[in-house]
Amino acid sequence: MKKTNAPGSGKRDGGSGFPVVGIGASAGGLEALEELFENMPTDTGMAFVVVTHQHPGHTSLLPELLRKETGMKVIEAADGIILRPNSVYVSPSGIYLAIMNATLHCMEAESAQAPHLPIDYFFRSLADDQKERAICIVLSGTGTDGTLGVKAIKGESGMVMAQQPQSAKYAGMPSSAIATGLVDYVVPPAAMPEQLVAYAKGPYLTNVRVASRFPAIPNEPFQKIIVLLRARTGHDFSAYKCNTIRRRIERRMNVHQIKQPNQYLRYLQENPHEIDLLFKELLITVTHFFRDFEAWEALSSYLDELIQSRPEYYTLRVWVPGCATGEEAYSLAIMLRERMEAAKRYFDVQIFGTDLDAKAIETARAGQYPNGIASDIPTKWLERYFLSEDGFYRIRKEVREMVVFAQQNVIKDPPFTKLDILSCRNLLIYLNSDLQKKLQPMFHYALKPDGLLFLGPSETTGEFSELFEPLDKRWKIYRRKEWTTAMRTLPEILAQPKNQDRGTPVSTMPEPPVKETHLSILIERLLLSRFAPASVVVNECGNILYIHGRTGAYLEPAQGEPRNNLLEMAREGLKIVLSAALRDCARKDMEVIRNAFQVKTNGDYAHANLSVEKIQEPESLRGLLLVTFRPATPPLPEAGKSKRNRKAAGDGDRIKQLERELQYMKESYQTTLEELETSNEELQSTNEELQSTNEELETSQEEMQSLNEELTTVNAELQSKVNELSQANDDMQNLLNSTDIATVFLDNDLNIKRYTEQAKELIKLRPTDVGRPVCELASNLKSGGLIEDCRAVLKTLVYKEAEIESRDGGRYLMRIMPYRTSDNRIDGLVLTFVNIGPLKQGEQVTKKLRFYFESIVNTVRSPLLVLNGELRVVTASKAFYRTFQCTARQTEGKPIYQLGSGQWNIPKLRVLLEEILPKNTQFEDFEVEVEVPKLGRRKFVLNARRLKQAEGVNDLILVALEDRTPGQR
């Protein structure tokens, strides 16, 4: 792929130490140049380079002419000339002039087919070489040359002046520059020197200010300016690089000749429009089609891999944040179309171009660019994807439909997601490191696996190298690495109320709302069926709901605040057994019985039996636990045993009791461990489910955000289209109504689609009739074959034209034509009815007058001729044909001097006739003797005068010939 590269590959700083002023002029520019230099001081400390449109080989006299207007040295530019202050350099004819390190170079245009735009070429080279010291002036000229150069100058914080269009002989070039909104001064050429000198001597361009290590704007007014910007525009620039913002603010101060930041702060407060201009200046980016063309060539190979890896019927998604006026987004669209065609694989492509600047987005949507883009785009692509229109190039429809533009703040608005390509070139360099650290993970999140990240040559992924795999380190092309948990920061999830689980203390569990009266009846009924032992009804957590009988031998209130939990009220010896029984019953869902255990009561031990079972009926109590206590008979001492033996037996019983308690403790411990393990497994499973649910919710949220962003973007695009269509519809409606022609639009089924007001006079139409078949509507036309004619035209696609009459006597010329769409598809019919009634009346009047006139003429016995301005015969009287024995075919349309044998070819007569119309003369009694075929020698007297016609019709000449031949009267 070959392209004409724009100039400007020099060093970052040209190093001239003084401002360099580029002056572009074209047609009518000589007067403006003379006026400019006539008023320019000779000691400005600046160098001036004049670039004009001149044909190759033309010897320019411009240096000699400018020497008469200025005391500065005027030199014709040549290769290797080093710029000096207080000097004027004039570009030679037919070449491109470039600048590098304050040295001029004459360049040959690489493409002879591209428009010759030397002003753009030099301005862009000047911006790249001189940065903020670059100044450009656009003077009189046709076309748009210089417009792209103006953008480049402002992109490097230079200064732009343009001639006031009213003072320009040709306003095309200055008007195009002013339309960018980037021109600092719009003044006549005579007023430019004063503004130019004041700007150059301001603090912005002084070496002291540039080299100072301390910020020119203190932090306090600087922050207040940021606040004003946020309040006015809704955008926060605090995360942008402070030095960049400070330099742009300093430049605006220099434009207004304001030296103190506090004064500029007051100026902003008093002039809100200046805040808009500052905002626009902060958003200026240097962009053009296929910027860094080698980078695009490198990208193309990775696009081939991406295209080959995607399945059929796939939709490629691309996001271009900071798209400015759309060049980068359209470049990607063109490159993708080229690569898909090369691979013979075609996908739907959705490219989202977003930017903060609403006006830039409008420009991008229009897709219209100056002729200067021809130097950035390969010729074959320029011809294929652009239309040339009146000094502009417009992107073709098939490329325009691939891109959707919308206003978006990439810092705070949700990103687009599931992207195959993310191109963010020369945006990150304007943001501070903290904001870059936030955007890089967001870019990773927005891309699909193996998605491509395309950055600018001065940008990098920084400390996020683990997120992206570098594919081309020079041109900053990266591939997204696979997703890992360590790489991704999940969004914070709002805290939700947590339900208490089994680990929640039982004392804090809410109790079920059971009514006392209703519950007591049910419990009494149940206990009676069980012989009413001492019983307690509890829930699974042990909270007591009801107590029946005397339970004091088993339960007692615990110390501290009153509590209603069975385990906390159990006496010594009961708690362990009761806890294990409650747990077994709840787990095994069966009755649990514990017999002959000891409970400490009033300093002694009593034996008891315990049963725990789940209540199954009635339904309202299902799930609760019934705990029943029964006294147990202690074992009797064996007879014959001594007191010592009985004591030993008692000790043995005590040991057995302790062993049982230990066994209960072991079983309880083992059960607790098992339940804990089970709970841990359940918690682990629950945690995994929650994690999975969180991820699903997060994915859903991301998709919703992405979908919402896309809908917002598409809605903005559609709103713009709706406004355009509404405007076009209004224009068309007004145009149709202004023609005073009755027009009706029908669809393929002959239903009404649209009509003009005049059509109501012929067909009884109302707004509610749209969509109805035309055959159902009453007509004021006498012709009954309208429907048949419409069907015939739809079938044959041959338009029909006929004169018809209305019932009130009107006459109309009816035309029925197929309605063709932009893609050459038939979508109904267009019926037009032109009122030709007045025309018919005029024809009738004309016929009557013609008959009247011919009657008079033919009554006159003298021959008469009517000639036009070329002295050709328009008509002749019957007396003329009779006298000269000729016919109308031999006479009409021929010059008078060719009639007969050329007898009227008399020089003096010819002069007299030729003077009648232009000089409004006439002549009488002009005698001639001529030889007339078949009649011999004859003598005639001629009279001629102007024959006045209606307005808009050429006048004629009336010639009367009277035969004065002796013997013929």
Quick rundown:
This protein is α/β, with parallel strands linked by helices. The chain is built from 26 helices and 34 strands.
What does this structure look like?
- The chain is of the alpha/beta class.
- It folds into seven domains: 20-201, Rossmann fold (3-Layer(aba) Sandwich), CATH 3.40.50; 214-282, Chemotaxis Receptor Methyltransferase Cher, domain 1 (Orthogonal Bundle); 293-487, Rossmann fold; 517-635, Beta-Lactamase, CATH 3.30.450.20; 664-723; 739-835, Beta-Lactamase (2-Layer Sandwich); 855-963, Beta-Lactamase, CATH 3.30.450.
- The chain contains 26 helices and 34 strands.
- Strands 3-4-2-1-7-8-9 form a seven-stranded parallel sheet, with helices on both faces.
- Strand 8 (159-163), helix 5 and strand 9 (185-187) form a beta-alpha-beta unit.
- Helix 3 runs parallel beside helix 4 (147-155).
- The radius of gyration is 50 Å and the shape is elongated.
- The two termini are 93 Å apart.
- The relative contact order is 0.04.
- Residues 1-14, 207-215 and 484-517 have low confidence and may be disordered.
